[in-house]
Design goal:
Layout (H helix, E strand, L loop, with lengths): L2 H26 L5 H19 L11 H24 L4 H8 L2 H12 L7 H19 L8 H25 L5 H23 L5 H4 L2 H29 L1 H5 L4 H13 L6 H23 L1
Helix pairs in contact: 1-4, 1-10, 1-12, 2-3, 2-8, 2-10, 3-7, 3-8, 4-7, 4-12, 5-7, 6-13
Length: 293
């Protein structure tokens, strides 16, 4: 297999896992609270990263610690907590599609805080089309008494992820090993979860924990989505480049929706399908704008 073929395979594996994480979380929410799932997932992830790269990260500037702490708070604690809570209100397919608008907010935050190039008309056109798609998805199941709270939480999660992406771009400029920086971010994410656990309680049922279905989904989230995907995605970026690899992100809502229908038997309406197409079209227009510049 050529290096190019391996790069495409790694990118597809990563997106396949990320696109189905919503399904695993949805299944686990029957037995665990959102914060319990979150804590266990990233505890598994950080332990895995320690085994892969046990070397300690030594910062050349102590002020960089604040950036890692902010990244852990946004990208690990707040983003995934909002995502998990959103899944308790709305369908996994909804969350998967709505989260995919994060690149729009990432561009906006990059312009505001990193002084990147201001997006043009194509970007805003793509954003409006994607938001129209989200509106279709959100109200497609009104007859099924869909609670819009979950969709709003998913949008908030997308904003938080954009903030995290801006912080990780800053972290990448430090020049450290990416596994070590990810592990550092995981560490702060777990630290910020502790107050939430203290106030909400952490009553882990051992019987539920060792249940084969639950254990598989927890390991899938911890080993696969939180550790393995980091390696496969960065391997794909190294081979294909960030632009060609990012195209695979468009497949996330498609995979999530298909998996939700097959595994969770969630109803997929024509209105929802139209919303998915509009969202993907909006993302395509926005990314094409970035490529042309």
């Amino acid at each position: 297999m050529s290096d190019q073929a391996k790069g495409h395979l790694f990118a597809f594996i990563t997106i396949l896992i990320w696109g189905t994480t919503f399904i695993s979380t949805k299944v686990l929410l029957v037995y665990f609270t959102p914060i319990e799932i979150l804590f266990i997932r990233f505890l598994i992830g950080i332990c895995t990263l320690w085994l892969v790269c046990p070397q300690k990260l030594k910062l050349v500037d102590s002020r960089q610690e604040y950036t890692f702490a902010a990244a852990g708070l946004c990208g690990i604690t707040l983003y995934y907590l909002l995502e998990n809570i959103a899944l308790t209100y709305t369908q996994a397919a909804n969350v998967g599609v709505i989260i995919s608008i994060a690149p729009f907010f990432t561009v906006i935050f990059s312009c505001l805080f990193l002084h990147d190039q201001r997006p043009g008309l194509r970007f805003f056109l793509g954003f409006l089309i994607a938001m129209a798609g989200i509106a279709l998805i959100s109200f497609s199941n009104a007859a099924l008494e869909l609670n819009p709270m979950g969709d709003l939480l998913a949008v908030a999660a997308a904003c938080i992820w954009a903030a995290y992406s801006t912080l990780t771009k800053k972290i990448s400029s430090f020049g450290y090993n990416t596994i070590q920086t990810t592990r550092r971010t995981f560490f702060y994410g777990l630290i910020f979860m502790l107050p939430i656990i203290f106030f909400t309680g952490f009553q882990m049922d051992l019987k539920s924990l060792i249940d084969p279905q639950n254990l598989f989904n927890l390991l899938f989230l911890g080993l696969g989505a939180s550790a393995l995907c980091f390696v496969t995605w960065n391997s794909a970026v190294k081979t294909l480049g960030p632009i060609r690899t990012s195209v695979y992100i468009y497949m996330v809502p498609v995979i999530t929706t298909a998996a939700a229908a097959l595994i969770l038997h969630e109803k997929i309406t024509w209105q929802m399908l139209a919303g998915i197409l509009l969202t993907l079209l909006g993302l395509f227009l926005s990314e094409k704008h970035k490529k042309e510049n």
